[in-house]
Amino acid sequence: MDHANDNRPAEFDRRLTDHLPLIKKVARRQVRNMQERDDLVQDVFAHALAKWRQFRPDGSFYMWITFMVRMIASEKRRKVIRQGRHLRQVEGEDILAGLSTPARQIEEIDVMEVYNLIPAGRNGDILRRRIMGDTLAEIGSDYGIGRERVRQIEWDQREALRAALGMSSAAVAA
Predict the structure, then answer these.
(1) What's the sign of the alpha-carbon dihedral 114, 116, 120, 124?
(2) What pLDDT sits at residue 2?
(3) Euclidean distance between CA atoms 126 and 122, whole angstroms
(4) Angle 20-30/34-50 helices, nearest 10 degrees?
(5) Which CATH entry fits the domain spanning 103-168: 1.10.10, 1.20.950, 2.60.40, 1.20.144?
(6) Which CA distances in Å does 27 have to 51, 56, 67, 82?
(7) Which CATH topology does 10-84 take?
(8) Low-confidence stretches of the chain (pLDDT beneath 50)
(9) What's the CA gap between 113 and 150, in Å, rounded?
(10) Which of 29, 50, 94, 146 has its CA 20 to 30 A from that of 139?
(11) Where are the domains of the chain?
(12) Nearest-CA neighbor of 114 among 167, 73, 76?
């Protein structure tokens, strides 16, 4: 991942802050919820600062930043849709109370023990992010590797975790 300022020109920062009203305007069209809108503006700033080298000085800053707002908003919507495929939509806490069984302390301890078996470092972080629902492309983009390599690392880490737990892949599939 790029550092926040690798000799970034002050002109770029000035243009970015000058375009804040535009970013907010486009974000308002993309997202209705005020909290999500503020998050989107922050994400756009972070992304623009991280990707400042991709901006061509001879290009239109207006178009570049507008496209970025729309792209990030679109990706956030896709992520919500992806997560929504696996969740049932219910309303009210009373309904939720009847659908779930509170975890017992021993089960929570078991989960934490398994989670703590995941090694520190990049490969362990990749497995943790996959467990949390990040896509192969998102993780690969952050680490500068392809989706297939992320999948391979995830597989290797899951196999190592199964071995540490004394499980085989066949036992998990059954």
Answers:
(1) positive
(2) 46
(3) 6
(4) 130
(5) 1.10.10
(6) 19, 23, 11, 21
(7) Rna Polymerase Sigma Factor; Chain: A (1.10.1740)
(8) 1-3, 174
(9) 24
(10) 29
(11) 10-84, 103-168
(12) 167
- The Cα–Cα gap between 37 and 27 comes to 6
- Which residue has tokens 């993780």? 139
Q: What is the DSSP string of the chain?
A: ---S-SS--HHHHHHHHHTHHHHHHHHHHH--SHHHHHHHHHHHHHHHHHTGGGS-TTS-HHHHHHHHHHHHHHHHHHHHHHHHTTS----SHHHHHHH--PPPHHHHHHHHHHHHHSPSSHHHHHHHHHHTT--HHHHHHHHT--HHHHHHHHHHHHHHHHHHHT--HHHHH-
The encoded tokens of residue 119 equal 């090694």
- Report pLDDT for 156: 93
Closest of 49, 52, 47, 65 to residue 4, by C-alpha: 49
For 65, other C-beta atoms within 10 Å of its C-beta total 22
pLDDT in tens, 38-57: 999 999 999 999 888 888 88
Which residue reads 């975790």 in tokens? 161
